[in-house]
Design brief:
21 helices; Cathepsin B, Chain A; Rossmann fold; six-stranded antiparallel β-sheet; 11 strands; alpha/beta; 40% helix
């Protein structure tokens, strides 16, 4: 109904799994990397969990597109089956013929014997067999135990079947049961897929609109996108539902933009008083109860110590917090602090790797917490920032096209728009392109990064700012350097030969504890397999193609002297890299 009104070619927020609308956030890439790592690890279980609508199916679809050619996949999407039904489904998916002597229905042993024979034959032909079970939280304990027994099918070198379980968070609770401990010990990789952050939500909406053919300004302006994130908690399926209804509301009211009122009405129509919103706040009441219990226990201890009855203690409880329905979230949004706009939902996988935020030294000038761009004062033009970046590599570059000049020193520019998530992964200083209030671009040098702050250099000035403040000014574009072999192609693929292939084979050989191969080798399937294993271990797209990001990670693993980001600041001692 609203498609022509907004100049679109099709509905941008349809729930249909159209691959053209695929949006891979950093969390989705990490989840896929875990799956690819599991495939090449030689058997066992890989576990991918996430909330309803978080994008598990998106990751699985992308994974299936990138799975190595030597893998045969069986996909089970309805796991509410008995043991016999599941084994029959697996045999059907792998196209395993079942021969049974005598009458009667096939037994569990018949299916397992047929599978074992098939898996051994596949292994002999150099093929890996992968079983994917979606909605795995619906599996019974009996079926899970049978799956564990299937992983006992093995040779002396490796297991014959790789099993990937994809399900909702309760799947993790199931595997924590004592009776399933043996299965839990066979999980070689696990990842919990969190929701999108506020900046990722903005990019998600823009991406879907662009694919749908939007050629004009987005109907979702910068004021309503953070509101959409707060209401939907960054869950893609909820974002689709809300944005679709909001566009319809704007069309009905003959408005070219979706305003705050339209978002509010759309949220009430789509979500109403959602039970999931109540659960999101239930932890506050649980903590309050624990606090009261602790105070009461403390009072009891004092009674026993002092031997006297304590005076009555009056506890003044805070007013109850209303359930966070869509309507209450909208009502409170008028006074919501700016920092809420960039606060993603907690991600279990990220929390395990949190870094301590360093205390700023006296030489730094921390930006105020509520700063909305004060740290841009003194920012640089692009050439000046690029020269400062080159100085960390021990180079003094002249001219306007510094990326071309740097090639004389075997340095290559790497430009990207994927923001701090990719920079954290690459672990190297970079020039950031920032936007001020007038939408003009200025540049700073990122020299340090933690989970909460970034350290920026602008000439002689160094400032530490919160990631929240930086995110408001940083659309995601950056430039960094990396050192390449003297002879270098931007993409090295199977069939290539040359200096960079020799370098690649030597580095992977050392990392794997193998003898360094002789020069002049061809990039063959064995080397491609090693590349995919390395890419998976580093969280990269495991496509077997060696591009700049793979070279950068190989440099880091091989100990090539390059400057790196550190927790809060970059060590100047790493400036010399030659």
């Amino acid at each position: 109904m609203y498609i022509k009104y907004f100049g679109l070619k099709q509905a941008p927020f349809s729930s249909a799994p159209d691959p053209r609308y695929l949006f891979m956030s950093e969390r989705h890439r990490e989840a896929m990397a875990h799956l690819l790592y599991g495939v090449g690890s030689g058997g066992g279980f890989v576990l991918l969990t996430g909330e309803i609508g978080a994008g598990k199916t998106t990751v699985c679809r992308c994974f299936l597109e990138q799975i190595p050619a030597d893998c045969t996949v069986a996909y089970i999407f309805n796991p509410k089956l008995t043991v016999t039904e599941l084994l029959k489904s697996i045999c059907d998916e792998f196209r395993v013929g079942l021969r049974r002597e005598g009458s009667g229905e096939p037994t569990v042993k018949d299916y397992v014997d047929a599978l074992n024979k098939y898996l051994l034959a596949a292994h002999g032909e150099g093929r890996n067999s992968v079983l994917i079970i979606d909605e795995a939280q619906n599996l019974s304990a009996e079926v899970l135990e049978q799956l564990r027994l299937l992983t006992n099918l093995e040779t002396n070198e490796r297991k014959l079947l790789q099993i990937i379980l994809i399900g909702q968070p309760e799947l993790r609770d199931m595997l924590a049961r004592p009776e399933l401990e043996q299965l839990a010990q066979r999980v070689i990789a696990r990842y919990h897929l969190g929701s999108l952050s506020a900046p990722e939500t903005a990019r998600y909406i823009a991406h879907r609109l662009a694919v749908a053919g939007l050629a004009s300004a987005s109907p979702f302006n910068a004021q309503v996108v953070p509101r959409i994130h707060r209401i939907t908690h960054g869950v893609p399926r909820r974002i689709n539902l809300l944005c679709d209804r909001a566009l319809l509301g704007a069309y009905v009211e003959s408005k070219s933009e979706v305003d705050r009122g339209i978002v509010g009405r759309a949220a009430r129509e789509v979500f109403g008083d959602q039970p999931w919103a109540v659960r999101a706040r239930s932890w506050q009441f649980a903590l309050l109860g624990l606090a009261v219990a602790a105070l009461l226990a403390g009072a009891g201890v004092l009674t026993r110590v002092n031997g006297s009855r304590p005076k009555a203690v009056e506890f003044v409880l805070p007013a109850p917090v209303a359930p966070a329905s869509a309507e209450s979230a909208l009502a409170s949004d008028e006074a919501a602090p700016a920092s809420d706009e960039a606060a993603p939902a907690p991600d279990e996988s990220a929390l395990a790797f949190d870094e301590a935020v360093p205390v700023a030294s006296s030489a730094e000038e921390p930006a105020p917490a509520d700063s909305r761009g004060a740290f841009l004062s003194g920012s640089l033009d692009e050439n000046a920032a690029d020269r400062e970046l080159a100085s960390l590599w021990g180079l003094s570059l002249r001219g306007d096209d510094l990326c071309r000049v740097a090639l004389d020193s075997d340095l290559h520019c790497y430009k990207s728009g994927h923001g701090l998530a990719e920079l954290r992964q690459l672990d190297r200083p970079a020039v950031l392109a920032l936007r001020d209030d007038a939408d003009a671009t200025s540049y700073v040098l990122l020299i340090g990064l933690t989970n909460a702050s970034a350290t920026l250099r602008m000439g002689s000035r160094i400032r530490t700012v919160s990631l929240m403040a930086l995110a408001r000014r940083f659309p995601g574009g950056f430039t960094t350097f990396w050192r390449a072999p003297r002879v270098f192609r931007s993409r090295v693929v199977q069939g290539d030969r040359g200096v960079e292939v020799d370098w690649l084979a030597a580095q992977l050989g050392r990392l794997n504890g193998l003898m360094v191969p002789a020069a002049g080798r061809t990039f063959d399937s064995v080397l491609a397999s090693q590349v995919r294993e390395f890419q998976s271990a580093q969280g990269l797209e495991a496509d077997g193609i060696v591009g700049p990001k793979t070279f950068m990670h190989l440099n880091s693993a091989a100990g090539v002297a390059e400057p790196h980001l550190q927790g809060g600041r970059s060590a100047e001692s790493s400036a010399s890299v030659r």
